[in-house]
Amino acid sequence: MLALAGCGGIQSATNPGGRGADAIYGLWSVFLVVCAVVWLLVMAALVWAMLRRRARHPMALAPELDSDPNTKRRLRRTVELATVATLVILLGLTGATYGVVSKIFPVHPRTDLTIELTGHRWWWEARYELPGTSASVVTANEIHLPVGADVTFVLRSDDVIHSLWVPNLDGKTDLIPGQTNTLTVRADRPATYRGQCAEFCGLQHAYMGLFVVAESPPKFDQWLETQRRPAPPPDNPDVRHGLDVFMANCASCHRVRGTGATATVGPDLTHVASRATIAAGRLPNTPGNLGGWVADAQQQKPGVLMPPMRLPPADLQSVLHYLGTLR
Fold first, then answer.
1. Which superfamily does 237-324 belong to?
2. Alpha carbons 16 and 150: distance in angstroms, whole number
Protein backbone atom coordinates (compact mmCIF):
# COMPACT_ATOMS: atom_id res chain seq x y z
CA MET A 1 0.00 0.00 0.00
CA LEU A 2 2.88 2.39 0.77
CA ALA A 3 4.44 1.64 -2.63
CA LEU A 4 1.15 2.24 -4.43
CA ALA A 5 0.69 5.50 -2.52
CA GLY A 6 3.77 6.83 -4.30
CA CYS A 7 2.20 6.30 -7.72
CA GLY A 8 0.28 9.10 -9.37
CA GLY A 9 0.71 12.20 -11.43
CA ILE A 10 0.31 11.37 -15.09
CA GLN A 11 -2.67 9.03 -14.55
CA SER A 12 -4.25 9.42 -11.12
CA ALA A 13 -7.73 10.38 -9.97
CA THR A 14 -6.20 11.72 -6.73
CA ASN A 15 -4.21 14.37 -8.61
CA PRO A 16 -6.98 16.35 -10.31
CA GLY A 17 -6.05 18.73 -13.09
CA GLY A 18 -9.53 19.59 -14.29
CA ARG A 19 -12.95 20.67 -13.08
CA GLY A 20 -14.58 17.24 -13.39
CA ALA A 21 -11.72 15.35 -11.73
CA ASP A 22 -11.65 17.90 -8.91
CA ALA A 23 -15.37 17.31 -8.23
CA ILE A 24 -14.87 13.53 -8.29
CA TYR A 25 -11.88 13.78 -5.97
CA GLY A 26 -13.91 15.89 -3.54
CA LEU A 27 -16.70 13.28 -3.54
CA TRP A 28 -14.17 10.49 -3.08
CA SER A 29 -12.70 12.33 -0.09
CA VAL A 30 -16.14 12.66 1.49
CA PHE A 31 -16.81 8.94 1.00
CA LEU A 32 -13.39 8.08 2.44
CA VAL A 33 -13.88 10.17 5.59
CA VAL A 34 -17.48 9.04 6.21
CA CYS A 35 -16.72 5.36 5.63
CA ALA A 36 -13.59 5.55 7.81
CA VAL A 37 -15.55 7.12 10.67
CA VAL A 38 -18.33 4.52 10.36
CA TRP A 39 -15.79 1.70 10.30
CA LEU A 40 -14.02 3.03 13.39
CA LEU A 41 -17.33 3.38 15.27
CA VAL A 42 -18.37 -0.16 14.35
CA MET A 43 -14.99 -1.58 15.40
CA ALA A 44 -15.12 0.37 18.66
CA ALA A 45 -18.64 -0.92 19.40
CA LEU A 46 -17.56 -4.47 18.61
CA VAL A 47 -14.54 -4.31 20.92
CA TRP A 48 -16.63 -2.70 23.67
CA ALA A 49 -19.29 -5.42 23.42
CA MET A 50 -16.69 -8.21 23.53
CA LEU A 51 -14.90 -6.74 26.56
CA ARG A 52 -18.17 -5.99 28.37
CA ARG A 53 -19.53 -9.49 27.84
CA ARG A 54 -16.27 -11.06 28.94
CA ALA A 55 -16.19 -8.91 32.09
CA ARG A 56 -19.76 -9.90 33.03
CA HIS A 57 -19.33 -13.61 32.24
CA PRO A 58 -15.66 -14.46 32.71
CA MET A 59 -16.13 -18.25 32.99
CA ALA A 60 -19.09 -18.83 30.70
CA LEU A 61 -18.45 -20.29 27.25
CA ALA A 62 -21.93 -19.46 25.93
CA PRO A 63 -23.66 -17.02 28.30
CA GLU A 64 -27.36 -16.55 28.02
CA LEU A 65 -28.70 -13.26 26.70
CA ASP A 66 -29.57 -10.74 29.38
CA SER A 67 -33.32 -10.80 29.95
CA ASP A 68 -33.45 -7.50 31.85
CA PRO A 69 -36.24 -5.33 30.29
CA ASN A 70 -34.23 -2.12 30.68
CA THR A 71 -31.32 -3.67 28.80
CA LYS A 72 -33.58 -4.81 26.02
CA ARG A 73 -35.08 -1.34 25.80
CA ARG A 74 -31.64 0.26 25.53
CA LEU A 75 -30.57 -2.21 22.87
CA ARG A 76 -33.72 -1.56 20.84
CA ARG A 77 -33.16 2.21 21.07
CA THR A 78 -29.54 1.78 20.01
CA VAL A 79 -30.53 -0.28 16.97
CA GLU A 80 -33.18 2.26 16.00
CA LEU A 81 -30.74 5.16 16.27
CA ALA A 82 -28.13 3.25 14.24
CA THR A 83 -30.72 2.53 11.56
CA VAL A 84 -31.73 6.19 11.34
CA ALA A 85 -28.06 7.25 11.25
CA THR A 86 -27.38 4.76 8.44
CA LEU A 87 -30.33 6.07 6.44
CA VAL A 88 -29.20 9.68 6.92
CA ILE A 89 -25.65 8.84 5.85
CA LEU A 90 -26.80 6.96 2.74
CA LEU A 91 -29.18 9.76 1.73
CA GLY A 92 -26.44 12.33 2.29
CA LEU A 93 -23.94 10.42 0.16
CA THR A 94 -26.58 9.91 -2.54
CA GLY A 95 -27.32 13.63 -2.62
CA ALA A 96 -23.61 14.48 -2.80
CA THR A 97 -23.17 12.01 -5.66
CA TYR A 98 -26.11 13.47 -7.56
CA GLY A 99 -24.66 16.96 -7.16
CA VAL A 100 -21.29 15.86 -8.58
CA VAL A 101 -22.89 13.99 -11.49
CA SER A 102 -24.99 17.06 -12.33
CA LYS A 103 -21.83 19.15 -12.37
CA ILE A 104 -19.89 16.71 -14.55
CA PHE A 105 -22.72 16.05 -17.00
CA PRO A 106 -24.67 19.33 -17.29
CA VAL A 107 -27.82 19.36 -19.41
CA HIS A 108 -26.59 22.27 -21.55
CA PRO A 109 -22.79 22.29 -21.34
CA ARG A 110 -20.79 25.32 -22.42
CA THR A 111 -18.47 24.49 -25.31
CA ASP A 112 -15.42 26.36 -26.61
CA LEU A 113 -14.05 23.52 -28.72
CA THR A 114 -15.53 20.28 -30.08
CA ILE A 115 -13.48 17.17 -30.78
CA GLU A 116 -14.94 14.08 -32.39
CA LEU A 117 -13.21 11.12 -30.77
CA THR A 118 -13.64 7.69 -32.36
CA GLY A 119 -12.49 4.47 -30.71
CA HIS A 120 -10.97 1.73 -32.86
CA ARG A 121 -9.32 -1.53 -31.93
CA TRP A 122 -6.92 -0.45 -30.49
CA TRP A 123 -6.30 3.25 -31.05
CA TRP A 124 -8.02 6.64 -30.85
CA GLU A 125 -8.87 8.98 -33.71
CA ALA A 126 -9.41 12.66 -32.84
CA ARG A 127 -11.00 15.05 -35.35
CA TYR A 128 -11.14 18.75 -34.46
CA GLU A 129 -14.25 20.57 -35.65
CA LEU A 130 -13.12 24.06 -36.67
CA PRO A 131 -15.90 26.44 -37.77
CA GLY A 132 -15.11 28.69 -40.69
CA THR A 133 -12.37 26.56 -42.22
CA SER A 134 -12.30 23.66 -44.65
CA ALA A 135 -8.95 22.30 -43.45
CA SER A 136 -9.61 19.39 -41.12
CA VAL A 137 -7.31 18.55 -38.24
CA VAL A 138 -7.09 14.84 -37.56
CA THR A 139 -4.68 13.20 -35.16
CA ALA A 140 -4.35 9.92 -33.32
CA ASN A 141 -3.73 8.93 -29.71
CA GLU A 142 -2.63 12.43 -28.69
CA ILE A 143 -5.08 15.24 -27.96
CA HIS A 144 -4.15 18.87 -27.34
CA LEU A 145 -6.44 21.14 -25.29
CA PRO A 146 -6.25 24.83 -24.34
CA VAL A 147 -6.15 25.35 -20.57
CA GLY A 148 -9.32 26.92 -19.19
CA ALA A 149 -11.49 26.04 -22.20
CA ASP A 150 -14.58 23.83 -22.09
CA VAL A 151 -13.89 21.07 -24.60
CA THR A 152 -16.71 18.72 -25.65
CA PHE A 153 -15.78 15.25 -26.84
CA VAL A 154 -18.28 13.67 -29.23
CA LEU A 155 -17.67 9.99 -28.57
CA ARG A 156 -18.23 7.25 -31.15
CA SER A 157 -17.00 3.70 -31.65
CA ASP A 158 -16.05 2.09 -34.92
CA ASP A 159 -16.25 -1.53 -33.76
CA VAL A 160 -16.91 -2.59 -30.13
CA ILE A 161 -17.64 -0.81 -26.85
CA HIS A 162 -14.75 1.33 -25.62
CA SER A 163 -14.61 3.82 -22.76
CA LEU A 164 -12.68 7.09 -22.47
CA TRP A 165 -11.11 7.73 -19.08
CA VAL A 166 -8.54 10.40 -18.30
CA PRO A 167 -8.52 10.18 -14.48
CA ASN A 168 -6.79 13.53 -13.91
CA LEU A 169 -9.41 15.42 -15.94
CA ASP A 170 -12.83 13.77 -15.60
CA GLY A 171 -14.86 10.61 -15.16
CA LYS A 172 -15.16 7.89 -17.77
CA THR A 173 -17.74 7.77 -20.56
CA ASP A 174 -18.46 4.85 -22.87
CA LEU A 175 -18.11 4.81 -26.66
CA ILE A 176 -20.88 2.53 -27.96
CA PRO A 177 -21.34 1.42 -31.59
CA GLY A 178 -24.38 3.11 -33.14
CA GLN A 179 -24.68 5.63 -30.30
CA THR A 180 -23.18 9.07 -29.74
CA ASN A 181 -22.19 10.15 -26.23
CA THR A 182 -20.63 13.43 -25.14
CA LEU A 183 -18.25 14.47 -22.40
CA THR A 184 -17.26 18.06 -21.60
CA VAL A 185 -13.80 18.45 -20.09
CA ARG A 186 -11.88 21.45 -18.80
CA ALA A 187 -8.19 21.36 -17.90
CA ASP A 188 -7.24 23.88 -15.22
CA ARG A 189 -3.46 23.65 -15.46
CA PRO A 190 -0.88 22.84 -18.15
CA ALA A 191 0.31 19.24 -18.03
CA THR A 192 0.34 15.99 -19.97
CA TYR A 193 -2.25 13.50 -18.74
CA ARG A 194 -2.54 9.85 -19.68
CA GLY A 195 -5.88 8.34 -20.66
CA GLN A 196 -6.97 4.77 -21.11
CA CYS A 197 -9.75 2.69 -22.57
CA ALA A 198 -11.67 1.64 -19.46
CA GLU A 199 -13.93 -1.00 -21.05
CA PHE A 200 -12.46 -4.38 -22.02
CA CYS A 201 -12.40 -4.37 -25.81
CA GLY A 202 -10.25 -7.32 -26.80
CA LEU A 203 -6.71 -8.61 -26.88
CA GLN A 204 -4.88 -5.26 -26.77
CA HIS A 205 -7.26 -3.42 -24.45
CA ALA A 206 -4.45 -2.74 -21.97
CA TYR A 207 -2.43 -1.01 -24.71
CA MET A 208 -5.21 1.31 -25.91
CA GLY A 209 -3.93 4.47 -24.30
CA LEU A 210 -3.80 8.13 -25.24
CA PHE A 211 -2.22 11.33 -23.99
CA VAL A 212 -3.98 14.63 -23.38
CA VAL A 213 -1.69 17.66 -23.58
CA ALA A 214 -3.19 20.67 -21.80
CA GLU A 215 -1.31 23.83 -22.77
CA SER A 216 -1.73 27.57 -22.74
CA PRO A 217 -4.08 29.01 -25.40
CA PRO A 218 -1.19 30.56 -27.43
CA LYS A 219 0.68 27.24 -27.52
CA PHE A 220 -2.52 25.42 -28.45
CA ASP A 221 -3.22 27.88 -31.28
CA GLN A 222 0.33 27.38 -32.54
CA TRP A 223 -0.07 23.59 -32.43
CA LEU A 224 -3.42 23.81 -34.21
CA GLU A 225 -1.99 26.02 -36.95
CA THR A 226 0.81 23.51 -37.51
CA GLN A 227 -1.66 20.61 -37.64
CA ARG A 228 -3.70 22.42 -40.31
CA ARG A 229 -0.82 22.35 -42.75
CA PRO A 230 -0.39 19.50 -45.23
CA ALA A 231 2.70 17.35 -45.22
CA PRO A 232 5.80 19.10 -46.60
CA PRO A 233 7.07 17.91 -49.99
CA PRO A 234 10.27 15.80 -50.01
CA ASP A 235 13.38 17.96 -49.99
CA ASN A 236 16.00 15.35 -50.97
CA PRO A 237 16.21 12.12 -53.02
CA ASP A 238 16.23 9.82 -50.00
CA VAL A 239 13.04 11.34 -48.57
CA ARG A 240 11.48 11.33 -52.04
CA HIS A 241 12.26 7.61 -52.33
CA GLY A 242 10.71 7.11 -48.86
CA LEU A 243 7.51 8.75 -50.07
CA ASP A 244 7.45 6.43 -53.08
CA VAL A 245 7.88 3.38 -50.84
CA PHE A 246 5.17 4.73 -48.52
CA MET A 247 2.73 5.20 -51.41
CA ALA A 248 3.41 1.67 -52.64
CA ASN A 249 3.03 -0.07 -49.27
CA CYS A 250 1.22 2.15 -46.74
CA ALA A 251 -1.15 4.40 -48.67
CA SER A 252 -3.89 1.77 -48.79
CA CYS A 253 -4.44 2.22 -45.02
CA HIS A 254 -3.07 5.62 -44.01
CA ARG A 255 -3.69 9.21 -44.96
CA VAL A 256 -1.08 11.93 -45.41
CA ARG A 257 -2.57 15.26 -46.42
CA GLY A 258 -0.76 16.84 -49.34
CA THR A 259 -0.06 13.48 -50.98
CA GLY A 260 -2.10 10.87 -52.83
CA ALA A 261 -2.52 8.84 -49.62
CA THR A 262 -6.15 9.32 -48.57
CA ALA A 263 -7.10 6.05 -46.85
CA THR A 264 -8.70 6.08 -43.40
CA VAL A 265 -8.28 2.47 -42.24
CA GLY A 266 -5.40 3.37 -39.94
CA PRO A 267 -4.31 6.56 -38.18
CA ASP A 268 -3.73 9.79 -40.08
CA LEU A 269 0.05 10.20 -40.39
CA THR A 270 0.23 13.78 -41.68
CA HIS A 271 2.05 14.94 -38.54
CA VAL A 272 3.07 11.62 -37.00
CA ALA A 273 6.61 12.81 -36.18
CA SER A 274 5.22 15.46 -33.80
CA ARG A 275 3.57 12.86 -31.53
CA ALA A 276 5.29 11.69 -28.38
CA THR A 277 4.29 8.04 -28.75
CA ILE A 278 3.19 5.51 -31.35
CA ALA A 279 0.88 2.49 -31.19
CA ALA A 280 -1.63 4.23 -28.87
CA GLY A 281 0.89 5.03 -26.18
CA ARG A 282 2.58 1.63 -26.40
CA LEU A 283 6.01 2.96 -27.47
CA PRO A 284 7.94 6.25 -27.37
CA ASN A 285 8.12 7.78 -30.85
CA THR A 286 11.77 7.10 -31.66
CA PRO A 287 13.25 6.01 -35.02
CA GLY A 288 14.09 2.59 -33.59
CA ASN A 289 10.60 1.96 -32.21
CA LEU A 290 9.00 3.30 -35.36
CA GLY A 291 11.17 1.03 -37.50
CA GLY A 292 10.24 -2.00 -35.42
CA TRP A 293 6.57 -1.06 -35.62
CA VAL A 294 6.63 -0.64 -39.40
CA ALA A 295 8.55 -3.88 -39.89
CA ASP A 296 6.36 -6.03 -37.65
CA ALA A 297 3.66 -4.38 -35.55
CA GLN A 298 2.38 -7.80 -34.47
CA GLN A 299 5.45 -8.25 -32.28
CA GLN A 300 4.41 -5.24 -30.21
CA LYS A 301 0.62 -5.54 -30.30
CA PRO A 302 -0.51 -8.99 -31.48
CA GLY A 303 -3.88 -8.80 -33.19
CA VAL A 304 -3.64 -5.24 -34.54
CA LEU A 305 -4.84 -4.70 -38.10
CA MET A 306 -1.45 -3.50 -39.33
CA PRO A 307 0.33 -6.39 -41.09
CA PRO A 308 4.11 -6.92 -41.11
CA MET A 309 5.89 -4.88 -43.78
CA ARG A 310 8.79 -6.97 -45.10
CA LEU A 311 10.72 -4.12 -46.70
CA PRO A 312 14.35 -4.22 -47.82
CA PRO A 313 16.55 -2.44 -45.27
CA ALA A 314 17.27 0.48 -47.60
CA ASP A 315 13.56 1.01 -48.30
CA LEU A 316 12.73 0.80 -44.61
CA GLN A 317 15.30 3.46 -43.77
CA SER A 318 13.96 5.72 -46.51
CA VAL A 319 10.40 5.35 -45.17
CA LEU A 320 11.60 6.20 -41.67
CA HIS A 321 13.40 9.28 -43.01
CA TYR A 322 10.21 10.35 -44.77
CA LEU A 323 8.04 9.76 -41.70
CA GLY A 324 10.52 11.79 -39.67
CA THR A 325 9.73 14.85 -41.82
CA LEU A 326 6.02 14.71 -41.00
CA ARG A 327 5.95 17.22 -38.16
1. Cupredoxins -  blue copper proteins (2.60.40.420)
2. 16
